[in-house]
Structures are given as C-alpha cells and as structure tokens.
Amino acid sequence: MSKKQTYGERIIYLVDQMKVNGEEMRIWANIPLAKEVLELIRTIPEEEGENALGKAYALNAVMEKLSEYDTPRLALEILNEELAQLRASEEKSDWLTEEDIKADIARLLDYINLDIPMGEFTRRHHRHLKFDPVERTPEWEENIYEAQKEADAAMGDFPRGMGYCHGFWPLLKSALAKRGIRWQTPSELNPRVMFD
What we know:
This protein is 61% helix and 0% strand. By secondary structure, it is an all-alpha fold.
C-alpha cells in the first residue's frame, strides 16, 4: 500500500482488480488479493472512519469474486469477518443479512467436513456435478493458487472463452500432480456433461 493511499482506497483498488481478474477468467489470481483485503479490514485504523457496514459490504464484494470452493477455509474467514462487521454495524443493510451469511458459512463448513460424503453434500446443498473429494482438503487449498497460476501460464495467450476449460484442466491436473495431489477433472467425473 502506498503511503498516500488510505486503507479504504486500497480496498477499493483490490476489489476492482478482482473484478478485472474475473473478467479475464483468472479467478485464481484473486486469492492473494482477498487475503490482503481481509487483513486491511481487520487493521483499518479508527481515524480512517470506515464504518462496520462498509467493511461488511467490501467483504461481500470480495466473496463475489472468489472461488469459494477452491479456498473454502479462506472464504470462511472472510464470511465470519463479514458477519462480525454486519453485527457491529449500527446501520442496517437492505440486502445483506445475517441469515444469508450464516447459510453460506454452514454450507462451507459442510464442504470441508470430510465426514459428510460428497453425495450427501451435493444433495444437501443442491449441487449437481460431482467433484473430486481432494478439493475439500487443506492440501488442495494450500496448493491451488500456485497450481492454477502455473496452468494459466502454460495456457499462454490461448483465448479464454468457449472450450478454455478443456485445455486448462489437464494442465491444472499436471500442476497439482507435481505437488503430490491426484485430482480428477470435472469432465472426468461427469462424463455425460458437456462443458464449454
């Protein structure tokens, strides 16, 4: 953060960059940005005058631009902070509710609970595609940023649009294997689904 930039300005910049990353199909690049926003929210000096509801809104914007199933533990940290800020706010939100945040927290807690079988999780939370159970582990979360970064670099200037996943997933599988993670791609686990 530059010395002239306030915490609030830095947060706005980071959230805007997360939007750009999403538009460029580089959601993985939002992981360190989300961590930085969370740290900034937690350490904003009182003299900056940022209110709790504004902090909750900022965290909600971060969640919209983060692949929560790639980083469920980080997402839980963000959601818990968002809930704390919403509760601390003297203002009420017209659209951000404790109930919605609590539901997201419960869903992600179920996701990382390896005692809940995948089939039960998908039924409980209305997910229709099978996913590799390794995606629920701490090892996945610790390695997914670097693996996706490596796979993205290997894709080079390949257009990010229809069919991109069919080139990206094998590269991601290879990058994860280098890190000791055996992963089955969504197309391998859902052979009757046409991914674009």
